[in-house]
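B., you asked whether I could sanity-check this one before it goes into the benchmark set. Here's the sequence:
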Amino acid sequence: MKRVTNWDADNFQGAYDAAAKNGTGVTFVVGSLNKKDTQDTLKNLEALKAKNPNMQIVFFDTDKIKDDPKYQGLRDWVQKNTNNDDLSFMAQYSVRPGEGGKPVGDKLISTHWGSDTTTLDEQQKYGKMYTEKFKGQFKIQEGQPEVTPQVKPSDKPSEKPAGPQNPQQAAIAEADKINQQAVSTDLDKVNAAIAEAQKAGEAGAKQLPELFAQQKKLQAMREAPARTRKEYAQKLYADAVALNGKTDKQSLEQQEANVLEAHRQINDANAKVPGYFATDAAKQELKAMGYSDKAIENLGRAPATGDKSKYWLSDNQYGVPEAEKQKMYDAGDSAALEAATREALEAAIADAKAKGVPLVIKYGLQGCPPCIAMDKQAMGPTSKDLTGKAVVANVDGPAAEMVLREHGYQLKAPNGFPFVDGFDVNASGNLTRGQNGHLEGKQLTVPTTQGLDASPTKTSIPQMVEGLRAERAARIEREKQASAEAAKQAQEAQQLIEAEMMKKLNEMMRINPYQFSGDGATTK
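And here's what the prediction gave me:
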């Protein structure tokens, strides 16, 4: 191994420094020295290093880092990228100046499985190209020891986030960079090759182990956006469980926040890779996080909406029909009420998400006079007036608590019932209450000599919806601008790559004084 590199888990900052000095990328190699595949990889890298003396290679020995607590950060990175597979793994990164000009990992240039280094050699020019963009901006502390015993997120071979990230969030960010279209294309090719090899009988049998390994890797890449979010959710839930028994305000608030964020991550995972939670193993993982069978079932289906839903009350309003709800109240059947309320809310959330409009939820309570007044006087006409502007749900408050939590919102009733919340619903079905998305008290009903008057509802809810729509429009515009900026950066990066390729093509064609322009013509 020393013939290939001196950089390892203890001193890899030195590889960043050397790459910054020489204007190259850094190649990280993950494997076990006890495995033949890793030995073959190092042998091929030795030959590649002889051809490219400035090539910076870091070797992470999985046997060395597997138990020592100081390597926990590296183990997390290795697990997220390799799923702890036995095949050797290589990842090439360019280098950029971090805080104070310190060289740190920047763009992921390429990843490679197994011992073949041919494509790694071809991709080195891009690591060099991106690193050289920062020439003159690096500040390397000369004479400082090149040993980094504690691994920090910014030291790991991944792009430094704009804000603070824990290892799980960093893993999600890396997973989201995977070109899923390319993965799907490659997976189709591998599946086709497996089918052909199986048809070939004994002649194709020798190819199958490698093909199955490639298939496994591609499937892992396809599922990475969901898997990393699920693992983050599991970590959040475990941290919440660890706070059981704590009674101080800070611990209780942290516990609640962790549970809600865990649910949001699960919803995001389900949206990123539909069907990810369909396997028995995945369902058991969800059950370990407190998910009921019904909640798990809802992750795997799209509820009926509109008049196709059993809980469509009419006039743009979802809820449990009054007669059915009263029977449950009379029987004291809270489980049935919760199940019906779940169905009604799931349909309302799906409808609002599909239509791209806010969701308004009115919460009532059994035997609550103001709640009854709202239902009789205001909810029907108000819901009808909001058609096309918002979706409305009218539910029992306590029965709604669990399903709302599963969509990332903790229901609270600071001043009793009734009250109204207004939400933005994102693509994953997660709920975010608007800045002014809460109404209660005199905003909904007022006492008069003739009894309770719910006419304020007809004014306050539409006003709230206008505010929610404005907030949603502003959010979409921010996301649109961010997406445009990301697309611009990707285009600029592609142009640099294409320019480098055209330069190489011109060198190969030796066209002089004419230059190949790439559009089918030559120019002087």
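One thing to flag: The longest strand covers residues 103-113. Otherwise nothing jumped out at me.
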